[in-house]
Automatic annotation (TrEMBL):
The keyword Secreted does not apply. Keywords: ATP-binding, Membrane, Nucleotide-binding, Transmembrane, Transmembrane helix. It is a multi-pass membrane protein. Residues 51-285 form the ABC transporter domain. This is ABC transporter ATP-binding protein. It comes from the Bacteria. GO terms for molecular function: ATP binding. The keyword Coiled coil does not apply. It is found in: Cell membrane.
């Protein structure tokens, strides 16, 4: 009984809806039969997380290319933020990494291994995704956190909750981790849901992280807490941040400005400000708000 359940949940745990608006993993499997383990694919070893996109081309439909011969290298453990106009392809770049879609040309490697040579399960099991849309099920807080890694111990669950800054919420609830959530229990705010998602990933501890920054506003205190735990989560992991607000990515090791024609600029915050190009323009525009 447990086996199939275990198998499915280890693959879909953090991708119940994929990245922003993507269909569920199972739907995806039903509608994108091309994406499957290819003959000879092997379970990936524990990855360090060095990412390489080599001349990657991709479009959702053949008549409309989105990425054209994109090259990108991210050293293991570094944080790279993607900024740029809406529709430029930031989410698309990130969604190729867990192979939600297949590249048309070129290849993507992690630690030198082509994604297509790894089993999907072993690849996706090593990528954590934090997005606005958090998947919760009817159950207790403990069960919802433990969903990050079935079989986690009580101490590990508590540690993950602590690192995700859930202590205060738990202290306020008479039943603590045993509090049911959803219709019959506590209703979580947007910020609390995000912290729960972060706790799941702390628990699972994947070497690679994709952060799809929330577009909807959280209050400043919540925002600050979430930023802190996200920064902690990103530590030591290769992290791609899809950024909508520039203020949150100043600390990134590298910022990529993605436009419809590809990666137009890259560098640190300071370098890009000094260069006086697109990033500087975006920055000035956001500072005015
Ligand atoms: P935003 O900042 O608004 O999130 P983005 O830079 O992340 O934008 P993408 O979501 O990667 O941009 O979209 C790139 C282009 O691909 C857009 O023109 C978008 O309309 C198109 N696109 C995205 N997802 C799909 C899809 N599932 N099917 C078809 N076209 C898509």
């Amino acid at each position: 009984f447990y086996r199939p359940l275990d198998k499915i949940s280890s693959v879909i745990e953090t991708y119940p809806r994929g990245i922003a608006g993507f269909r569920s993993y199972l739907n995806l499997m039903a509608t994108e039969p091309d994406i499957a383990d290819r003959p000879g694919a092997r379970p990936a070893p524990p990855l360090r997380g060095e990412l390489r996109f080599e001349k990657v081309s991709f479009g959702y439909t053949p008549d409309r290319p989105i990425l054209r011969s994109l090259d990108l290298h991210v050293e293991a453990g570094k944080t790279v933020a993607l900024v740029g106009p809406s529709g430029a392809g930031k989410t698309t770049i990130c969604s190729l990494l867990p192979r939600f879609y297949e590249v048309e040309a070129g290849r993507i490697t992690i630690d030198g291994i082509d994604l297509r040579d790894m089993t999907l399960e072993s690849l996706r099991g090593q990528i954590g995704i934090v997005q606005q849309d958090v998947f919760l099920f009817a159950g207790t807080l403990r069960e919802n956190i433990a969903y990050g890694r079935l079989g986690a111990t009580e101490a590990e669950i508590r540690e993950a909750a602590h690192r995700a800054r859930l202590d205060e919420l738990l202290a306020d609830l008479p039943l603590g981790l045993d509090t049911p959530i959803g219709e019959r229990g506590v209703k979580l705010s947007g910020g609390q849901k995000q912290r729960l998602a972060i706790a799941r990933i702390f628990l699972r501890n994947p070497p690679i992280l994709i952060l799809d920054e929330a577009t909807s506003a959280l209050d400043t205190v919540t925002e600050g807490l979430i930023q802190q735990s996200l920064a902690e989560l990103a530590e030591g992991r290769t992290t791609l941040v899809i950024a909508h607000r520039l203020a949150t990515i100043r600390g990134a090791d590298r910022i990529l400005v993605v436009t419809e024609s590809g990666i137009a600029e890259q560098g640190s915050h300071r370098e890009l400000i000094e260069a006086g190009g697109i990033y500087r323009g975006l920055h000035t525009a956001q500072s005015d708000i």
